[in-house]
Specification:
Number of strands: 5
Helix content: 55-70%
Distance between the termini: 47 Å
Radius of gyration: 23 Å
Largest sheet: 3 strands, antiparallel
Strand content: under 5%
Length: about 475
Amino acid sequence: MRTFLSLVALASAASAQICQTLDDGATRTVGPDPTLDTIILVVFASALVLFMQAGFAMLEAGNVSKPSVTAVLFKSVGNLAIGLIAWFTFGYAFAFGTTYHEQDSGEETTSTQWFIGSGGYFLQNVNPCAYPFFFFHFTLAAVAAAIACSAMGGRAKVSAYIAYTFFIMAWVYPTVAHWTWSTTAWLAQGSIDDQNRGVGYFDYAGSGVVHVTGGVAALIGAKMSGARENKATAATSTPLVALGTLILFFGFVGFNIGQTRLDGLVNGVTISLAVVNTFLAAAGGAFAIILLSGGKWDFAKLCNGSIAGMVSICAGANTVYPWAGLVIGFIAGIVYICWSAVISGSGIDDPNQAFAVHFGAGAWGLIAVTLFAMDQESAINVYGRGGIFFDSDDRLAWIVLGWNFFGMLMIAAWTAFNCAVFFMILKAAGLTEGGDDTFASAAAKDDAIPGPGVDAELGIPQSTPVKTSQI
């Protein structure tokens, strides 16, 4: 084992040297620490987050009528292609691009903007060792877009889904990421403390950056698409909803480990903490739904409660004690129920409760991390200070609470404004209502074809029974 670890250490050091050599000094973008173990971790986490697209597809397919299932699945696969093009062309550069200029003296200066990044369009002059970082943040952007589009199921045309995805991943989400996670993130830098450190917005894995953005975009889409014509008779596939939820469990692990760099034992422990907190928060959210059910079991709410718990813990998965992770998830389940009641009462048709789950729990997560962050004496405190419940006398703890609340408002306002304007354009083009006749006609044609029939629960063709003698 010692020999193996030594080889890994040597390989990591060699990879760091290679990455430094590949850097031509012209244009670079922020990326992961150029060590082999970190690159492997980021690629693995990216694959888990990408798998969430299958989870969202199953959840959506399980909550819409049969004619809309094919459109939802087509959108889920097609959006990955369109989203990657958007992120490759503009999104990554807007989010993390920084241009480096070498002066005659040999010194480097950087040019960037507080509002949006620059440099690295089409991955031009980007260090190849930053590619895993590019891919990981593409998967996060794709999650935000999937959340946004999930609220439009059964109404919008596929062309509207594709356009909305491109817009979110090329403009709306990258700007938010630049404000919060880039090297010049003005929200994260906030104000300067007495030790010349930035004290500002803190969001470890995206409760606000990903989920508040996606949730607000979902609300705009659901509101401006109107209600489904067949809402009262829309079928629900319990197995698909269950499958989608369980897939998301895997994805959230990637969410909460992909932001950590493997540069020491402390970060290794942080990864373990993030994984444990992810599932404890899910358990807390589900438990809240069970307690609030009053004996009237609702499986969809149970699934959404567990997802809400995982959404809420993203902001502080690496910096709260496990018991706090459970409590944060439990409160997230309650927050989801409250927001769900508000949206249902307003008449907005959100088939997957995307706004209640992602905005509601995400906003709570941004507040929760400032309350529950472990005390400063903890050996694995990466937050830099204790939360209000541990260090209430620390003025800086309250400042971070203010910045997180302000950051949540800024993200929500930016997303709402841009998405509302863009959706007005889609609506004027007639792309937000009526669905796609092509898919509806295909579904009707499938019903007319004699054959094994369609499973009423799953909405998929039934297989022909096989006799034992045929095996």
